[in-house]
From TrEMBL:
Organism ancestry: Eukaryota, Metazoa, Chordata, Craniata, Vertebrata
InterPro entries (alphabetical): Ion_tolerance_CutA, N-reg_PII-like_a/b, N-reg_PII/ATP_PRibTrfase_C
GO molecular-function term, one example from the UniProt record: copper ion binding
Family (UniProt): Belongs to the CutA family.
Alphabetical GO biological process terms: intracellular protein localization; response to metal ion
Organism: Bucco capensis (collared puffbird)
Keywords from the named record: Signal
Protein known as: CUTA protein
Quaternary structure note: Homotrimer.
Gene3D superfamilies per record: 3.30.70.120
Gene that this polypeptide is encoded by: Cuta_0
Xref: Pfam families: CutA1
Length: 143
């Protein structure tokens, strides 16, 4: 009985991973010419990425460039956030602008590289989280 209790969750997890891999493979093969995204939404294939900016001008420039370069489908600009953090041993508090970026998970490395190369901060924030659920038509549009 102990073997069953500990083995069943592992087998269930393995089954889910195999199903996800099979779905991803079949979805990718039905792609509409875009190798980094598919026509059928696969959980985790879309990410929401977050980048803070020093002001709205920088935020808009970065957002437009990301969409023009097809690194993002959509970028929301959230003005007037307050960030409290430690930098170089000192507690800081700054007014910033937050970018919420919707993109294909496969594009996150290129997105991060773009931000590193163009962002005015010495160490720019690029944090991405996979989207596992949402409005299917919207998620397909992001792809």
């Amino acid at each position: 009985a102990l073997l069953t209790v500990t083995t069943v969750p592992q087998l269930q997890a393995l089954g889910r991973r195999l199903l996800t891999m099979a779905s991803a493979t079949s979805a990718t093969s039905s792609s509409s010419g875009n190798p980094s995204c598919s026509d059928t939404y696969v959980p985790g294939s879309i990410s929401a990425a977050f980048v803070t900016c020093p002001n709205e001008t920088v935020a808009k420039e970065l957002a437009r460039a990301m969409v023009e370069k097809h690194l993002a489908a959509c970028v929301n600009i959230l003005p007037h956030i307050t960030s409290i953090y430690e930098w170089k041993g000192k507690l800081e508090e700054d007014s910033e602008v937050l970018l919420m970026i919707k993109t294909c998970s496969s594009k996150v490395p290129a997105l991060a590289e773009f931000i590193r190369s163009t962002h005015p901060y010495e160490v720019a924030e690029v944090v991405a989280v996979p989207v596992t659920q949402g409005n299917p038509p919207y998620l397909r549009w992001v792809q």
